[in-house]
C-alpha cells in the first residue's frame, strides 16, 4: 500500500533523529484512524532505560493522548521488526496492525525468530505487514553500526600510537 510506505517514511525520519544523537536508529509512528497519534524513536542510551524502545515510547504517548490503553484502530509503523518486549506491548494494547521495515534476525518476534503478534493462544492477534521499505530501514542500521566499528578502530589506533 502506498500509504504504508508514506507512513514508513515518517518512521524512517524518526529513526534518523535517533541516529543523530548516537542512538541505534529505530523509529516508529502510530496512526489512529488516519491521524498520527504519536511518533518517536529509540532512546535507550539517552534515558539509560532498557525499555525505551521506539514502539514502547510511541504506544505510551498514544495511550496518553487518546486517553485509552486500547489501540484497536491503530497501525504501528516501525523501522525494525519488534523485539519480544515490544511485541508483548503491541498485543497488550490491542494494536490492530503492525507494519515493519527491516527484519531482525537477532530479536524479531513478528515472524523471524517467532511470531508473538499472531500467536493464536493469546487473546489478541495483530495484522502484520513485513518488509515495507526494508532496505532503507536496514541500511540506516548497517551504516550506523559500521560508523561505530570505524570509530572504535580509530580509537584503538590512537591508543596504540601513544604507547
Ligand atoms: Zn523493542
From TrEMBL:
Entry keywords, A to Z: Hydrolase, Metal-binding, tRNA processing, Zinc
Pfam family, one: MafB19-deam
Positions of Zn(2+) binding: 53, 83, 86
Source domain of life: Bacteria
A GO BP entry: tRNA wobble adenosine to inosine editing
Cofactor remark: Binds 1 zinc ion per subunit.
Enzyme Commission numbers on file: 3.5.4.33
Catalytic residues (positions): 55 (proton donor)
Reactions performed catalytically: adenosine(34) in tRNA + H2O + H(+) = inosine(34) in tRNA + NH4(+)
Cofactor: Zn(2+)
EC primary class: hydrolase
MF-aspect GO terms: tRNA-specific adenosine-34 deaminase activity; zinc ion binding
All copies of domain CMP/dCMP-type deaminase, residue ranges: 2-120
Listed SUPFAM superfamilies: Cytidine deaminase-like (SSF53927)
Similarity comment: Belongs to the cytidine and deoxycytidylate deaminase family. ADAT2 subfamily.
Function as written in the Swiss-Prot or TrEMBL entry: Catalyzes the deamination of adenosine to inosine at the wobble position 34 of tRNA(Arg2).
NCBIfam families assigned to the protein according to its UniProt record, in alphabetical order: PRK10860.1 (NF008113)
PANTHER family attached to this UniProt entry: CYTOSINE DEAMINASE FAMILY MEMBER (PTHR11079), TRNA-SPECIFIC ADENOSINE DEAMINASE (PTHR11079:SF202)
Listed name of the protein: tRNA-specific adenosine deaminase
Organism: Metabacillus arenae
Amino acid at each position: 500500500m502506498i500509504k504504508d510506505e508514506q507512513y514508513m517514511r515518517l518512521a524512517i525520519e524518526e529513526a534518523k533523529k535517533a541516529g543523530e544523537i548516537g542512538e541505534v536508529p529505530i523509529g516508529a509512528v502510530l496512526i489512529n484512524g488516519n491521524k498520527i497519534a504519536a511518533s518517536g524513536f529509540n532512546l535507550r542510551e539517552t534515558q539509560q532505560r532498557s525499555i525505551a524502545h521506539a514502539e514502547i515510547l510511541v504506544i505510551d504517548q498514544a495511550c496518553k493522548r487518546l486517553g485509552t490503553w486500547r489501540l484497536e484502530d491503530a497501525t504501528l509503523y516501525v523501522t525494525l521488526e519488534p523485539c519480544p518486549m515490544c511485541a508483548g506491548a503491541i498485543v497488550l494494547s490491542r494494536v490492530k496492525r503492525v507494519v515493519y521495515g527491516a527484519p531482525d534476525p537477532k530479536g524479531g518476534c513478528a515472524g523471524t525468530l517467532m511470531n508473538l503478534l499472531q500467536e493464536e493462544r493469546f487473546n489478541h492477534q495483530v495484522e502484520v505487514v513485513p518488509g515495507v521499505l526494508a532496505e532503507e530501514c536496514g541500511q540506516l542500521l548497517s551504516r550506523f553500526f559500521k560508523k561505530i566499528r570505524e570509530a572504535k578502530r580509530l580509537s584503538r589506533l590512537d591508543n596504540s600510537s601513544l604507547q
